[in-house]
Amino acid sequence: MSLLEQINQKQFSVAVIGLGYVGLPLAVEFAKAGIPTLGIDVDPEKIATLNRGENYIQDLDSGVVGGVLENGTLRASTDETLLPNYDIIYICVPTPFSANKDPDISYVLQAAESVQRNLRDGQCIILKSTTFPNTTEGHVQPILERGGKKVGTDFYLAFSPERIDPGNKVWHTANTPIVVGGVTEECTRIAAAANRVIIEKVVEVSSPKVAEMEKLLENIFRSVNIALVNELAQLCDRMGGVNIWEVVEAAATKPFGFMPFFPGPGIGGHCILIDPYYLSWQARQYDFVTNFITLAAEVNESMPFYVQRMVIRQIANSTVRLQDAKILICGVAFKRDVDDLRHSPALRVMELLKQDGAANLCYVDPYIPTVDVHGTVLHAQPYSDQLIADSDVVVITTDHTNFDYEAIVRNAKVVIDTRNATKHVRQGREKIHLLGSGNG
Ligand SMILES: NC(=O)c1ccc[n+]([C@@H]2O[C@H](COP(=O)([O-])OP(=O)(O)OC[C@H]3O[C@@H](n4cnc5c(N)ncnc54)[C@H](O)[C@@H]3O)[C@@H](O)[C@H]2O)c1
Questions:
Q1: Where in the chain is the domain with CATH 3.40.50.720?
Q2: Which residues pair with 179 in a beta bridge?
Q3: Which atom of ligand 1 lies nearest, measured to the CA of 165?
Q4: Whose CA is nearest to atom 13 of ligand 1?
Q5: 222 CB less than 6 Å from ligand 1?
Q6: Domain 242-434 class?
Q7: For 65-92, how does the pLDDT look when each residue is reduced to its tens digit (9 = 90+)?
Q8: DSSP 3-state of 196
């Protein structure tokens, strides 16, 4: 039976390399569909956690994860020599950037090496890590072919980028359409068929390069649009009398040709901040300057500095010195309702304030137990009205839905709101300094 027929009859197996925010949900989804699935990770702690039947990804239902582990549909291991037993191998490892913001595809290359060491005829490898065009064909394929096997005949290879949006209650793995581009048509057909087992709509494109580029376009699109409203927020602050949040909401009433984006303290996470740099780095090899990407990064990365100045202005207007001021940061996760701290703009704001001499910084965040602010480890404070009341300035950096914004404003002396989280608060609005409203 061909691999395609096996997939269509659901008689195949899946291995997922890299069990993070992308890989574990993917592996669980296949296991839920009854497909024997192996999860591989180099982190022994993650594997040990799973082998105790426990879950570490907030979006996943721990009962479901425990169930598929208990009934053996999902196995977890650090042992790459198990790979030959599996028909489809997904690679979901990190693609960070270096200190100079150049792409670091070393994890992808290491994962490709471990696949190559264990490659058997007839397997299909699907790269999901976000990366620059030509990674699949120019970097992964040569590693896999090193032993003499040929793509399209001995094994199959495709790129199919991930679109998971942690914390999103509406769009999840099954109902979010996904794109796939194989090195050959057969590669595309096989990879698309595997994806269709767990995803309702799969869009086939002509090559891995198209799939790689479309993923970057998605994230650059967000970065550019967020930068646009961040710039307009700063203009509104300078003009006074115009609230950017009201402006965006009014514009969003246009039923076509407009999509709302909102300002904030900066962008974070493993995607929108990093991915545009993958393309601007590659463009330089073609003597091409990606102006939109550069400008968007400049505006977005200036936002934590802008919020830092908002805080310092409020302290300057009070009777305390910055060194003594008790500054409470509300929310340090990089976005609402997630437990992900990676490249969080809130953390950047804390680092900048610490650099300026603020010695009395603390934070509340139900999802992040500790943070490291330039070498100082802080523990999340338990939320209390007293904590708010004792603070000289409260800064809302992440608008978690379980914060009580009425209580925050009621008890605080001064609130700096960078997310419009206090939009519905009625009492005490004179204490609120809202980014982009002219009273920041
Ligand atoms: N997090 C998201 O929301 C999201 C969304 C879309 C795309 N992506 C992309 O997906 C990729 C993975 O992101 P993530 O957030 O899941 O990362 P993550 O850091 O949460 O998980 C990656 C996992 O890979 C493991 N790993 C690293 N090298 C390995 C190797 N050689 N063999 C086995 N395991 C290895 C790590 O230990 C880690 O557990 C990135 O390219 C990212 O840009 C992420």
A1: 3-206, 242-434
A2: 203
A3: 3
A4: 94
A5: no
A6: alpha beta
A7: 999 999 999 999 999 999 999 999 999 9
A8: helix
